């Protein structure tokens, strides 16, 4: 009998190979094995991964159930970043079901969780998803505002001096 770690690894391999049904099955077996050993974090990751694979396989109800399980487990752990990832996945799922206002709500929830966790890169990415959704809705100003916020939330690189390759002069980069 494979271990929970082996089952999870198999699920990841199947997912990367585009074998979503096999990935779903592997993650579904790994999740209770992790729970039985007391590893709630790994069980939550398996539930989230199962949801992603189920969404790819167009098994949307199963994806939503898996994401809901992952969300509950990450809430128990107090893991804001992972809760944000699940909320973002639920937002993408709602968007694929043409539940646009629900998707907006879930994306905004994900952004708040990412900001609470200090995950500015993920927050910016979710703002861009929200911007694309607002564009689909024809809400141009809201789309521009969300995109602008995504740019503002990214850590701005500091100015540095770069050496010109053609000469020895330095210039601001």
What labels would you give this structure?
single chain, mainly alpha, 173 residues, 8 helices
Characterise this structure.
A hairpin with a 6-residue loop joins strand 1 and strand 2. The chain starts with a helix and ends with a strand. It contains 8 helices and 2 strands, in the order H-H-H-H-H-H-H-H-E-E. Strands 1-2 form a two-stranded antiparallel sheet. It has 173 residues and is mostly helical. It has helices at residues 4-16, 20-36, 40-56, 60-77, 80-96, 100-117, 120-136, 140-153; strands spanning 161-163, 170-172.
| Residue windows where pLDDT falls under 50 for at least 5 positions | 157-173
Give the averaged pLDDT, no decimals: 84
Q: Give the H and E element order.
A: HHHHHHHHEE
Largest beta sheet: strand ordering: 1-2
For the CA atoms, what is the radius of gyration? 20 Å
Molecular shape: globular
Helical proportion? over 70%
Distance between the termini: 56 Å
Determine the strand fraction and express it as a percent band. Answer: under 5%
Per DSSP E runs of 2 or more residues, the count of β-strands stands at: 2
């Amino acid at each position: 009998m494979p271990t929970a770690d082996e089952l999870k690894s198999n699920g990841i391999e199947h997912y990367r190979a585009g074998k979503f049904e096999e990935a779903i099955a592997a993650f579904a077996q790994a999740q209770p094995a992790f729970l039985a050993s007391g590893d709630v974090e790994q069980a939550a990751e398996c539930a989230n991964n199962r949801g992603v694979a189920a969404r790819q396989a167009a098994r949307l109800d199963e994806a939503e159930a898996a994401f809901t399980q992952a969300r509950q487990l990450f809430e128990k752990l107090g893991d804001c970043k992972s809760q944000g990832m699940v909320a973002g996945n639920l937002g993408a799922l709602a968007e694929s079901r043409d539940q646009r206002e629900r998707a907006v709500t879930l994306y905004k929830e994900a952004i708040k969780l990412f900001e609470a966790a200090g995950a500015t890169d993920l927050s910016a990415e979710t703002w861009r998803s929200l911007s694309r959704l607002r564009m689909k809705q024809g809400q141009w100003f809201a789309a521009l505002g969300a995109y602008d916020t995504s740019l503002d939330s990214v850590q701005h690189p500091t100015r540095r001096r770069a050496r010109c390759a053609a000469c020895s002069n330095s210039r601001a980069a």
